[in-house]
Write a structure and sequence with these properties.
214 residues; mainly alpha; 3 strands; rod-shaped
């Protein structure tokens, strides 16, 4: 105020102030008060070793924690992708070779069947000798073997297709496990209190002020 308030009264300066020109006692009292009554309320997650910043709200700290969890999940996904990409490429290569084998066995079987058909017709119409008939019978046995080769080649192809499918299912399960592992609900956020240390409390200036009580 620019002027003295009406009906203002004054009280005497406390003795400890009048006898302590540098206010050392008041400084010690204030330091003791701050040490006993002041504290900083924060949040933390112990497993991630994360702590909130001063005055950071819980909702904002949760966003920070979720960001860290997302980064960790992405790192693990990259590792999974590299691992399963190698497995998939190896199986696909084997599958391509197995499919080529099936086509080759089918071609050999058709060629043998045509040759047998021609020989049997020759025998039926008297144009084939006994030796050639024997050869035809031998070729028939080879056709049966080639049919078996085709069947085995097809089975190998099917087995490889099944393994590729199972690999995809396995990868999907691991991705789901990572999503669960890095869910915020699985990481406890707890409040904690930091109290000041006396040696860290620094009081630079103490001044005497008058306050008007109206």
């Amino acid at each position: 105020p620019q002027s003295e308030p009406r009906d203002a009264t004054y009280i005497s300066v406390p003795a400890y102030i009048s006898t302590d020109s540098s206010l050392k006692s008041a400084q010690r009292e204030l330091q003791s008060y701050l040490y006993k009554s002041c504290s900083l309320e924060l949040y933390r997650n112990k497993s991630l070793r994360l702590e909130s910043k001063p005055n950071e709200e819980l909702a904002n700290f949760k966003v920070t924690v979720q960001g860290v969890l997302d980064d960790k999940k992405e790192d693990q996904l990259d590792i999974l992708k590299e691992k399963y990409d190698k497995k998939e490429k190896r199986l696909i290569g084997q599958l391509q070779r197995a499919q080529e084998r099936v086509e080759k066995e089918k071609g050999d079987q058709v060629s043998s069947m045509l040759s047998i058909g021609a020989s049997i017709l020759g025998a039926l119409f008297g144009r084939t000798t006994a030796t050639k008939i024997g050869t035809t019978i031998s070729r028939g046995g080879r056709v049966l073997k080639e049919r078996g080769d085709v069947s085995r080649a097809k089975q190998k192809t099917q087995d490889l297709e099944d393994r590729i499918y199972e690999l995809g299912v396995e990868l999907e399960e691991k991705i789901d496990d990572l999503a669960i592992k890095y869910t915020l609900e699985n990481y406890e956020i707890e409040p904690f209190t930091i109290k000041p240390k006396k040696r860290d409390i620094s009081i630079e200036d103490i001044a005497l002020l008058w306050r008007a009580q109206l």
